[in-house]
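Q: For a teaching session next week I want to show students how multiple molecules come together into a single three-dimensional assembly. I've collected the sequence lines for a complex. Could you give me the predicted structure tokens for the whole thing so I can convert them for display?
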Amino acid sequence: MESHRLRAGRVIDGFTLEELVHTGGMAALWRVTKPDEPRSMLMKVPFLGEGDDHSAIIGFEIEHMILPRLTGPHVPAVIAVGDFAVLPHLVIERLPGKSLDSRLKDAPLSPEDVCWLGAKIATALQDIHRQHVIHLDVKPANIMLRDNGPAVMIDYGLARHDELPDLLAEESDLPIGTSAYMAPEQVLGIRTDPCSDIFALGVVLYEMASGEKPFGNPTTRAGMRQRLYHEPRPLRALQPHIAPWLQEIILKCLEVDPDDRFQSAGQLAHALRNPDQVVLTERAARTKSPGFVKRVKNWWQGQNRVIAAPMRVADRLDKAPIIMCALDFSVDEADAISDAVKRLVRRLLETDPESRLVCLTVLKTSLVKLDEALDQGGRNIYLKRLVALKDWARSLDLLEESVSFHVIEAVDPAQAILDYAGFNSVDHIVMGARGHSTLRRYLGSVSSRVVAEASCSVTVVRLTRTAEDEEPSGGGQDGAPEAAHTGG
Amino acid sequence: MRIAFCADIHGNRAAFEACLRECERRGYDQMVVLGDVVGYGPDPQWCTDRVRELEAKGALVVRGNHDAALREGTASMNELARTAIEWTLTQLDSASVDYLAALPLSHRQDERLYVHANAWAPALWDYINSPREAERSMRLTEARLSFCGHTHVPVLYHMSAKRPAAAFTPLTGKPIPLSTIRRYLMLVGAVGQPRDRNPAACWALYDTTKREYTIYRVSYDIEATARKIRETAMPQAMAERLAKRLFVGS
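A: Of course. Below is the structure for the complete assembly, covering every listed component.
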């Protein structure tokens, strides 16, 4: 077949083959060049000859179908797509840097590196999930790191796009994936849950933190099924210096039931970036493998486990948004507005109980004068705000693990809110807006800028006023929040 | 080339007009009518005239079981379909009956097959309701892509060389890229009487250059069609059942 006869110097669709970079079981990777194309490029050519593995062909069909539909910094850019009838190939940007595989040679990595890298990978996964795609083969060799930049997920041969046919659907009774990293539901043939990628990332994090794979490298189906009932050894049994919060995060990713894991990669990224906000459960305290009785119990549960498959990637993400409420305690009507924000947030949380709430307030600092860390009464302003935030949220009666509190200092509050939301994959910003005043008409308001520039949905809460209250007199009346929605 | 597919119009003028407007708006080079121009709906003559106009301008048209029943009789049909065909015969001029009953059972165009029910026995009108039947049909034609109607439910079946077929329900307005090394069978959904619990009229578009297949749903004046059905001379209970189906989409 064509693909086996490729050699350096040959020109395909205008691309010159320069050097064979890699030959795997499924495809060959060539470094290619093209006049007028300054980018560094790779051509991926699958092995499609007689006797070649049939799954190589399907894998390439899937990548051919999905990769050109993905955009953004977390996927390799597609430069050209070859015609299957002539010579199937994909030309993609050649990423600088190395795969995570090469960094794992130094494992165990420091907890800081595990968190920093883990958050980057989780952010990449969240971006891909938002584009309707589940990767289903998350492993170190498929994670690239742009120099000092975002993580990039490569190799979409097993991926699933929830708006397109699953070309692996007909083989769904077989586990398809990489045995060491595959989620339990994937072992059972379910290919519709983005939480499968969170499990696989949990395995990667475990490996980064300890240098060991939590479920080994099983080669048989029975061996793969063990993860349905076998709890991984607690990380702290391997590396006693690992902090309880990191063990909490990683073991939560490795829960057998997808519903018990982080409900979105964005929520996982947020936890990795805010360790002080991680709520410790029994998972954090484990220091040794479960005893005999627990193992038997787990085994029994594993034998009888039915994992329900969710319908669509979007369904899972929609159910578990990160909602950020930005509160301003420094204004006249702060109480009335923050009450109105709270009523709306309560309704949102009732609709989607898997939501995660991020409560944020910005301490405005000045570029010119040195800021006072203490107020006139000598109290620490930062702590005061934090207490105010927690006090505000108390009556929402939230579970500790579903809410976090952040006081940030910034010169430009709108920019701070936008940056925070973008960095933490926030899905929905809820914030209050003050009434109209002449001054604000000239300066522009924080909320209007957030509405204009945010890359997610924003709900602005205003106090409803009757016509007589329109005059800029002091003191607002508390009223029902009137929400203005903008799509993102 | 952009190919527009309209199947199972079933005498529903309002739905057919709405789909044709949408076809014009999106643009197409080739129209294919996948059978069952009449039956059930209140405007068989108008729909037949319109199809003949389209054919004069290059459309390909195949025969459906309701079109065939105008001449061959209604022995294999259920009571509702039979009643509707008997009424339809009172509405159509004989030239139209001749035209519909004599339509070809299938058309081949490049790597594509257009047929109302299935490829294995087009005149027996067996339904494709599962991947097994889709596979049977795909294996019995040399065409790599088959486009069918008959079931009134939009489904895409796909199959690679040595594997069984799998089913996928296309999403409205979401183009599906088709692989060039796979066989496909598309049930394009119904214009005049959808049965997938979505009452909106359904048509499909295949772009041979981009190799993308898309189904579209169009809202139309269901109330108008239902009113006309109730005003026909069909027995009232039958007319009521036919009208109700349009609102439920089943």
